[in-house]
């Protein structure tokens, strides 16, 4: 009998799941992707500014994993026949902005954590004697800890505040003192369960990485990452349902029933529909997932429903042609500077762009707990981004010739210590034929989301085989 599989959520995790389902299931399997917004892609959204392609969400992906093989994102690119479109950023250094200057990003750190704090110079000073060998591993087996707690204990506060916080803030918009070491830096967490000092753990984690020196670290697609979205949707052969929320899921004797329609629409009205499927990949953020799971897997719902998110805004500025910027790809800003700006990317310097056009800068605003600072209209945020950018660069910038603002409310998960254990317990509570996927569960970044979606697809395929 022909099977029907629902993928709830049309971001890259859901689309990767749909492609994997297509590869693993019989050709007549019907795959339906339900996306409540009007567009696929989630936080992959390519835009344009003053004639230049500028990403409105994720900008690039890691090319390889720590094992040295293609990342899940690159494998998907190849599966979709887009390998010819791979592009890489220029090898331009980045900086840290603090104390009224731009300091070169120190080399040899692991997400800002150095193996030799003495090599940081005046960027940050470690407190001597703190990283002594206590005769036991830094962490016990299975133990998790906040990144900031470990680094503060071993190196002191300056390394956290000036290096680790801005690095983690650039990726997660979060704070080192609240983010799980096991999720954000798994290689360091593994090494910390063996090594007795943080410096030794960083060296061990770096040595364990099989990435080839000289190979590009990051990649993107010529024309924008929305190409990945469109190609994945096409390759999946899925029926795409846009603008119709899944408001409830329920068990049936033979699978699952989806209740579709606006939350305010009463059952039985013409605005509410049902759809019966054999399996579900749930690829939406934690809280919507928890609401959908509440009646079918309450233990799982409780386990994932408490995940917090950070909101951020991106402001893209097109400055007049010839505007002078430092020879950098961009910079990160420590929270201690007090600015709303937490990072800036010099798009037209970092990526290949035609000469003579406008100078494009993409500015990231907001960190976890700063949602109230983003509650201004676009014009105010644009003015704030432009003013703070000039102050951080130490120059008077000309007025932009064009700009846009992209808001990502609740866009970045904040993984607190113990996330992996809570997630494992939640997944153990899921009924067969129902799997979770996405950044809420398995990490931010395109490779992590792709891998999560593919693994969820494999789980529901196995459940379908077992039930046959």
Could you explain the architecture of this structure?
Pfam families: Amino_oxidase. Pathway: Porphyrin-containing compound metabolism; protoheme biosynthesis. With 468 residues, this protein is α+β, with helices and mostly antiparallel strands. Among the domains are: 4-43 and 72-81 and 227-307 and 415-467, FAD/NAD(P)-binding domain (3-Layer(bba) Sandwich), CATH 3.50.50; 106-206, protoporphyrinogen ix oxidase, domain 3, CATH 1.10.3110. Helix content is 32%, strand content 24%. The protein contains 15 helices and 22 strands. Strand 1 (4-8), helix 1 (12-24) and strand 2 form a beta-alpha-beta unit. The longest helix is centred in the C-terminal third of the chain and has 22 residues, at 446-467. The protein is globular, with a radius of gyration of 23 Å. It starts with a strand and ends with a helix. The model has no long low-confidence stretch (mean pLDDT 94).
**Total beta-strand segments:** 22
CATH H level of the domain at 4-43 and 72-81 and 227-307 and 415-467: which superfamily? FAD/NAD(P)-binding domain
Q: Major sheet, described briefly?
A: 7 strands, mixed
CATH architecture of the domain at 4-43 and 72-81 and 227-307 and 415-467: 3-Layer(bba) Sandwich
Low-confidence stretches: none
CATH class of the domain at 4-43 and 72-81 and 227-307 and 415-467: Alpha Beta
CATH level 3 topology of the domain at 4-43 and 72-81 and 227-307 and 415-467? FAD/NAD(P)-binding domain
Q: Strands across the major sheet, in which order?
A: 8-7-18-19-20-17-21
Task: Please tally the helical runs, counting DSSP H or I stretches of 4 or more residues.
Answer: 15
């Amino acid at each position: 009998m022909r099977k029907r599989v629902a993928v709830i959520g049309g971001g890259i995790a859901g689309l990767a799941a749909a492609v994997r389902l297509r590869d693993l299931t019989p050709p007549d399997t019907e795959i339906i992707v339900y996306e409540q917004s009007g567009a696929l892609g989630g936080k992959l959204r390519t835009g344009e500014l003053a004639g230049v392609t500028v990403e409105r969400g994720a900008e690039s992906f890691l090319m390889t994993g720590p094992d040295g093989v293609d990342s899940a994102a690159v494998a998907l690119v190849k599966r979709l026949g887009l390998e010819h479109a791979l592009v890489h950023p220029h090898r331009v250094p980045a900086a840290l902005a603090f104390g009224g200057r731009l300091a070169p990003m120190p080399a040899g750190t692991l997400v800002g954590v150095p193996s030799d704090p003495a090599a940081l110079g005046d960027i940050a000073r470690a407190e001597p004697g703190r990283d002594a060998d206590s005769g036991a591993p830094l962490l016990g087996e299975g133990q998790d800890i906040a990144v900031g707690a470990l680094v503060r204990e071993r190196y002191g506060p300056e390394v956290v505040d000036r290096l680790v916080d801005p690095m983690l803030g650039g990726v997660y918009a979060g704070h080192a003192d609240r983010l799980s070491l096991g999720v954000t830096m798994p290689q360091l967490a593994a090494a910390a369960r063996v090594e007795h000092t943080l410096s030794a753990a960083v060296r061990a984690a770096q040595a364990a990485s099989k990435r080839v020196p000289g190979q590009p670290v990051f990649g993107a697609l010529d024309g924008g990452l929305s190409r990945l979205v469109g190609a994945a949707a096409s390759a999946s052969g899925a029926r795409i349902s846009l603008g119709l929320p899944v408001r409830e899921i329920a068990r049936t004797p033979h699978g699952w029933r989806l209740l579709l329609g606006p939350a305010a629409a009463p059952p039985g009205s013409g605005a509410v529909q049902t759809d019966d499927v054999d399996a579900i990949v749930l690829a939406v953020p934690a809280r919507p997932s928890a609401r959908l799971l509440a009646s079918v897997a309450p233990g799982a719902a409780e386990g994932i429903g408490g995940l917090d998110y950070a909101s951020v805004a991106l402001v893209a500025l097109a400055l007049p042609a010839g505007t002078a910027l430092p020879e950098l790809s961009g910079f990160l800003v420590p929270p201690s500077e007090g600015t709303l700006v937490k990072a800036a990317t010099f798009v037209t310097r970092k990526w290949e762009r035609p000469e003579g056009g406008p100078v494009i800068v993409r500015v990231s605003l907001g960190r976890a707990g700063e949602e109230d600072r983003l509650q201004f209209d676009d014009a105010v945020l644009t003015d704030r981004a432009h003013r703070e950018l000039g102050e951080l660069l130490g120059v008077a910038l000309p007025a932009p010739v064009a700009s846009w603002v992209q808001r990502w409310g609740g866009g970045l998960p904040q993984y607190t210590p113990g996330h992996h254990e809570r997630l494992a317990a939640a997944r153990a509570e899921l009924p067969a034929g129902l799997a979770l996927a996405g950044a809420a569960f398995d990490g931010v970044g395109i490779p992590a989301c792709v891998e999560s979606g593919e693994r969820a697809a494999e789980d529901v395929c196995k459940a379908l085989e077992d039930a046959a």
